[in-house]
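U., I forgot to send this yesterday:
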Amino acid sequence: METPSSLFADRVFDSHDGLKLFARDYAGGGGPARCPVICIHGLTRNSSDFDEIAPWIAGLGRRVLAVDVRGRGRSAYDPEPKHYHPLVYAKDVVKLFADLGIARAVFIGTSMGGLITMTLALRHLRLISAAILNDVGPVISPKGIARVAQYVGKTPSVSSWSEAADYMKRTNQVAFPNNSEFEWAKWARRTFAENESGQLRLQYDPDIAHALRTGKPKVRSLIANLAFRRLSRNRPTLLIRGALSDIIEPQQAEAMRKMAPAMRYVEVPGVGHAPMLMEAEARAAIQDFLATVP
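Result:
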């Protein structure tokens, strides 16, 4: 169910503070050289969330990097939970670009990945040629935060792939009411992994929930607004919103569009937080947007 590893090369690099981090590297198709794309996943997710959209974008002629943010997927867990923070994640991206000799890229940031992108815009805008924010912005609905806090960092009792698929359905069906059983099984393979004993475990460190446990998450901040303004007013920006989203509700999307009149916008019907980006509306918007970026 996962993208064959032959479609991408493994990239393992050292973070700025010594952790071993992982990224998938998809070679771009033929044609003139184009700015590469970096895909950054959401809070509890990993690079496999892009296992369909990444090769599709590569087929458009762009190199694609899909990262495992520290504490997720094949990247090392951080022994210091307070390092699970967008400022630290942003430093990791800067290090990856330096190691691979990448001067700038188009950023696709899903949820937390979008927050990392906005964080980079404050100090490293030169690295961003354009940005796609997938169901995230400087103001987040407290309704969505409360829902996410119910399951992040809590280890489910799952003893089979069928139970893993049921868990994914139970925790995400509100956002994806039309998913088939096949889709839930695919999501389970992206979310869980087998250890050496054959037991299933989540592909993230439970301590990524540190901020949710230790204090009330900020749903808005002056710095976040400044970051979004700096990004959207200086670089081409596209906002993709799930029509059922409880993270970016209509009022938050409208506020973002007022702050950034030039920002492109598309709404994906029938899904919530966050679109998988292979939906027809999302793909069309991404293809049109990338066509405007060198």
